Each structure stands twice: as structure tokens, then as C-alpha cells.
Amino acid sequence: MGAGIKNRYSTLSMQYLNETGNQEVIKAKDNLVCSATDLAVSACQKALDLAEIKAEEVGLILGGNATPVETTPSEAQRVGERLGLKTIAYDLFCDTQNFFLFLDVLSRWDESRIPKYVLCVTSNVPTQRVNYQSRVESYYFGDAAAAMVLSTSVTGKARLLDCYYNTVVKSHSNIKLGIFSHVSLDHEGAKTAIESETMNLIDMAEKRSKIDFKQTKFIGEQLDAEVLNAIARHYGLNEENIWGNLERCAYCLSSSQMCVLAERWESLQAGDKILSVGAGIGSGRGFAFIEV
Amino acid sequence: MFSILGMGHAHPQGKIDNKFLEDLQTGTSEQWILEKIGIITRRTTLPLDYIRDTRNSDPRLALEVASMTPTDLGVLACEMALEKAGVRASQIGMIMCNGCTPRTTSPSEVQGIARRLGLENIPAFEVFTACPVFALHIDFLRNYRADELPEFILGVSTATLTQKVNYNDRSDGAIWGDGAAAWVISTKEIGKLKVVDSYYMADPTRCHSVVVDTFGFFHQDGRAVRDFSVRQTVRLIKQIEEKHQIDWTRDIFIGHQANATMLSQITNNRDIPDTNHWQNVTNVGNQAGAGAPAVLSMHWDQIKPKQKILVAVVGAGLSWGSALFEA
User: Cβ A77–B202 below 8 Å, yes or no?
Assistant: First the structure.
């Protein structure tokens, strides 16, 4: 399909996958090498380590999981349990753009009501919902979790310059995750939507902040490399400034963009600016403009 | 300053009474149910024949036979709330949902409800904690800077938990009912109820005390949850009594609609007379996050000027919260 994906991670047992192709979605949960919450906790622990704070300093956990094995408790509460925390925890969830939703909501809050440290985590395991006899879905999806520690009172490595989240509810969604059914993806529709909607958001971001496209790092929707390249050409982005992981990780729903940023975290240099945009898949769309 | 302008609720027509449950011969009886849980009937989207014949042993089949979806119920509740608020759907600037039994996670429950209401191009997202969501939504909104919220916000909680019950279990079948509740909140317009205070907290270390498996059933550590719920609700009420002038001859208490017997223990502890305790669990069952706000919606026309209404809810997560309103 030319999307540029070479590998994807999966929480499924390879033996199970080879033997069954995950034909019955409900059997996946009994054939895992690890769970979505395992991934989430691992991501959180790494985020806490990099932030140099202890879990018990977290005053709020916000979570999101589009592929839960339990609809109750929430992902945030499952993570809190594993971290041994008695703290405010609930899910703040949109299907595919949790990164921008977290940032947008928190950026609108009265700082006096935000705890010193907020832990945001999104964990998605769409391979557990893939029919591996499907050419499209088996190709595009991978599993991942990502987490971030945010503070309004402690200066961190990067600060948020601008962000945006909105929902455009359409009659036709190009991705569908039913509870008992396999995931379905209209990949051609998604590619078209990602390209046009991403550009709309980049234009919006540029109107609101001065963006030097030659210097700014760009993280786009991690579905298709050709689309990302088209966007990059349109804005004259340098190839080395296009950050992504779709080649290694495929598309991991809300986790993708946060994962890309997390993978680059330790190599961020002072003065770096990063524009991350998510749009075109599902109903949510957003961007985050970050400065190191 | 926030106000609730209008509220709505929706329940399916199907009714499961205690005789029906006794006749399933799972070891329960009408007497046991009334003594321990205090529920007489509960509403369901499932055909009674289906429950009788299959005990809902395979919850996948429930989706095929159910008379309504959680989205259907959520939409009805929202429409009622909008009508009572005198607000058009097109005026809503943000919608939040607590979908406990979504049929799809992409699109999510809130997106399904938003699409049916014709809401386009507004932030739509889940703020989810199951049972105590009404308190959470109020507290969540109070976090915002005043100028960052739209004039009208719609909140909704919906669940069809009878579809997640294994009717071979003698107690789970007696608890759950299906339902939805919705609320229209304004940041600018003065409505029938002003938000006076709110609180939300959780103890995730106990979150697996109450579980709804995505592909399976509800299950809980009933005794532990029950005892915790009673104690924590009493604490929540005391917190509000200490902070605000509450007069239980005038003001109203609404608890989490899990169990009428538990609610009696709570109201006895705080000397809240029956006339000032509103509930619907006896006739509708436990509707998860929709329970308490549905009670408020069902009593909307009975609210008197100057009355304070305290909603104190404890449930899954484990999480708990309160919201105090004044008419």
C-alpha cells in the first residue's frame, strides 16, 4: 500500500496470531504477552523518571484507551492502581486525538485548580481488534502507549506555546472500533482527510503563532508516509525535521504522536520548536505547538 | 457561576420485577431482594423472553436483541434536557459524556450522541468515571477559567448495564437497570439550579472492586463496595453540612442509585427524612452514572425556591464526589 510501514508492535501472542489470525476478537484478551495497561504503566514510569518525580507526587491522572478490555474501571484508574496511587483519576477520552484533548483541556483550566503534577496517559492496542486476514487493517495498526507529566508551576524541558482540540462529527467515520467486532479502516478516505485537515490545522497554527517551517519539527498523523511527505513538501519542511515512527510502529491511534515526542524527548535541544498535528482519522482533530 | 438550566432522563419500557428474577431460579427470592437491595423493578432494553431463555450467557447476543442502544437513551435524555432548558441543540458549545457501555469506542459514545443531535464542530469528548460522573462533570467544568467555556454545555451519562449482566448470578440481575440522564449547564444564563460547590476524588488502588468487562459481564466485590459506599457517602454529606448551611427539613439529598437499603442507612445516619430524600432506584434499578442525575431530572418540577440539593455519589473507580445546588 505504500504507506511506509515496515513493522508494528503487538500485544498479541505470535503463536495465537499465527494459529487463528485473531478471527474472534473476544479471544485476544486471553492470548496476550502484555496488556494495554502494562504498556500504559511502563510509559508512565518512564515519564515520571524523566520528569524526576515520584508517582505519589501526581495529583491527577487523565487517561484514554480506545481498545479497553474493561469499560469500567477507566484506564486512568487502572494505571493509578498499578502505580499505587490514591488520587483523582478519570478518563478524558476522544477516539484518536487524546494528546491534543489533554493539552487543550488543561490549558483552559484555572491554574489554581490544577495539581502540581498531572499525569496523562493514552494506551491503545488495536492489533487486538484486527482481523489478520484483512489486508488493510493488518497492515496499518500497531500497539503503543505514551504518557506525559505536565505542570503549570514547575518549569519543565518543554513548554506549550499553543494548542487546539475540536471535534467534527461526520456521518461517515473512516475508522470504526466496535466492541465485539474487528476494527475497520477506510484507509483511502483517511489519507485524503489527513492531508486536507492537517493542512487546515497547520494554517490555523501558523495564523496564531509565527512558525518557521524551515526550523520547526513536525509530527503528523502516523498513518501514511506518502501523506506526511506531501504535507512536508507543501510547507517546505526539511526532511530531517519530519519526526515519526510509523515505519517501526505503524498507526497506534492516540498513542502515536505522543510516542514520537517521547522517543525524541532526550534528544530535544533548547530552542527546538515542535508542531504536532492530528486530524483526519475519527472525529477529533488538534494540534500542539511546543518549545524546548 | 454555573447554573443547570434543564435536565433530562430516559429509561426503556421493559421491566424486570422481582418475581421474574425469582422465577429464574438462581437462588434469589423477592424477599431477599427487597431486604438486601430494596429494588422492586428495574428497566431493561432486553426482552424478558431472551433473559429467561438464555440468561444473557453470551452478551454479544444482547446487542442483537436489545430494544434500544445506550446512544438511543442518551439522545432522548439530551433532547429532554434541551427542551426543559429552552436551549436549541445548535446553541450547545461543548458536549461531555460518560458512556459506560459503548457499542463503539471509535466513534465514541459522545460522538454518536452528538451526531444524532446534529451537533457539529464543537468539542465532544468523554469524561468518564462511571457512577459518580455527575459530580465529576460539575467539578471538571469548575476547573475551567470562566472565559474558556461556551455559554451552553451538555453533559450526558448513559448505560445499558442489563446487557452486561449474567442472569445466572443471583445478585447482579437484581441490581442493574438501563438508563440515561443529561444536563444543560450555562456559564452565563441563570438557571433553575445554581452550582454552589462540587468535589471529586478517587482511590484507584481499589478500582477492580467494580468491573465491567468489555467482552463479558459486570462483577464486583459487593460487600466491600457496599460498606465503602455507605461510609463514604456519609462523609461526603458531613463535609457539605459542615461547609454549608443545610437544613434537612427544606433541602434535598440524592445519593448514588445503587441500592435502596444502602440509601436508607445513609439517610438514617444523617437524619434525612424520606420526604427530603429523592430516589428512583426502587423502580428503575441502578443506572450507573445516570442514576442520581435522573432522579434530579424526574423531580425537576418539584424543586422549590431557596432549596439546596445535595448529590453525593460513590461508585466505580473507586471514586466519589458531590455537587451542591441551590434553587
Answer: yes
Chain B partners within 8 Å of A79 (Cβ): 204
Report the alpha-carbon distance of residue B308 to residue B249 in Å, rounded: 11
Q: Is B40 on the interface with A (CB under 8 A)?
A: no
Q: Would you call A177 and B316 a contact, using CB atoms and an 8 Å cutoff?
A: no
Check if the beta carbon of residue B237 is closer than 8 Å to that of residue B270: yes
Task: Decide if pLDDT at B1 tops 90.
Answer: no
Can you read off the three cell numbers belonging to residue A23?
Answer: 478471527
**CB-based contact B173:A43 (threshold 8 Å):** no
Query: What ipTM goes with this model?
Result: 0.97
Residues 114..143 of B with a Cβ closer than 8 Å to A: which? 114-115, 119-130, 136, 142-143
| Confidence at residue A2, expressed as pLDDT on a 0 to 100 scale | 66
- The number of CA neighbours under 13 Å toward the Cβ of B85 is 32
Res A1 pLDDT > 60: no
- Rounded mean pLDDT of B115-124? 94
pLDDT at A13 over 90: yes
Would you call A169 and B319 a contact, using CB atoms and an 8 Å cutoff?
A: no
Three-class secondary structure assignment of chain A: CCCCCCCCCCCECHHHHHHHCCCCHHHHHHCECCCHHHHHHHHHHHHHHHHCCCHHHCCEEEEECCCCCEEECCHHHHHHHHHCCCCEEEEEECCCCHHHHHHHHHHCECHHHCCCCEEEEEEECHHHHCCCCCHHHHHHECCEEEEEEECCCCCCCCEEEEEEEEECCCCCCCEEEECCCCCEECHHHHHHHHHHHHHHHHHHHHHHCCCCCCCCEEECCCCCHHHHHHHHHHHCCCHHHEECCHHHHCECCCHHHHHHHHHHHHHCCCCCEEEEEECCCCCEEEEEEEEC
| A2 Cβ neighbours under 8 A, 6+ residues apart | A224, A225, A226
Q: Which residue from B82, B255, B236 is spatially nearest to B156, judged by alpha carbons?
A: B82
SS (H, E, C) B188-228: CCCCCEEEEEEEEEECHHHHHHEEEECCCCEEECHHHHHHH
C-beta separation of B279 from B260 below 8 A: yes
CB contact under 8 A, A77 and B125: no
Is the pTM of the predicted complex or chain greater than 0.95?
yes
- The tens digit of pLDDT for each residue in B53-88 reads 999 999 999 999 999 999 999 999 999 999 999 999
The mean pLDDT value of chain A amounts to 96
CB contacts < 8 A, A to B, total 180
Cβ-based contacts of B163 with chain A (< 8 Å):
none
